[in-house]
Amino acid sequence: VEAAEGLRAATGADDESGVDDGTGDGLGVVSDRSRLRDAPLAAPNAGVWVWFGRESRSGLDDARRTATATMPGHHRVKAGSADASAGVDLAEALCDPAPDAEFPFAVVADAFGPREGDALRIDHGKPDGRLITLGEGTVTGVDADGTVTVEREMTGGGTYDGLGVDREAGDVAETSLKEGRWWYPTTYRGRDGTVRGTYVNVCTPVEVFPDAARYVDLHVDVMKHPDGTVERVDDEELAESVAAGHTPEALAEKVRSVASALENAL
């Protein structure tokens, strides 16, 4: 109320009607205190941070498309960078994109990255809301089909998770991240090129942004040991996540299906 009256006094809205006269001298400020409210009409509800994945963005595209021209991957591209967001606006202003067209990964990556030689971070989300950064690697390849290859040189000490193989200085981890795929493999090689094992992470569809690859880890992993043995692990962690309400059962079934297919393929 005090702030409103201060503004009224500053703008000269003090005629008997209680409102400025519309001549431009005032700003439409009510001068009659009885017409002012001491409390807002409504208060916002508490907010939460929500991690939108690739499937969620696609759903938002579908909803937006019912009202206006929307290119494939509209929300996905806009989430990448400010320049990419402006590019989407320009593309949609110039043409009417086909709703069933494929996401133009090659065009987007060529314009905004990542490109060979770039640094790319791996953002490893968890169903309970945590975000773990698995480090940063160098992009060694970008394919038009949406596959980005990243290499990281490892430090010595400890063992590779699940593989039980010693981690030695000079080892290289090669990770293949494909846009939209429900899994990605990391192959560990020694300094001499010897394969020390492959670890396949089952996750929500991968998104490869200019500076980071993002996904939510869905607990179950499939490994191929140096001797060729294939092992599937962490199904119990998935079950616990379902019980805790962090992972819907329908999504858990998708995870199990993907993991079974990987077991057979490896």
Task: Give a structural overview.
The chain has 266 residues and is an alpha+beta fold. The protein folds into three domains: 2-35, no CATH class; 54-103, no CATH class; 115-265, FomD-like (FomD barrel-like fold, Beta Barrel), CATH 2.40.380.10. The protein is 28% helix and 26% strand. It is built from seven helices and nine strands; from the N terminus they run H-H-H-H-H-E-E-E-E-E-E-E-E-E-H-H. It has helices at residues 2-11, 54-65, 74-78, 82-94, 105-112, 235-243, 249-265, and strands spanning 119-125, 131-142, 147-153, 172-178, 183-189, 195-203, 207-208, 212-224, 230-233. Strands 1-2-3-4-5-6-8 form a seven-stranded mixed beta barrel. The longest helix has 17 residues, at 249-265. Residues 16-29 have low confidence and may be disordered. GO terms for molecular function: hydrolase activity.
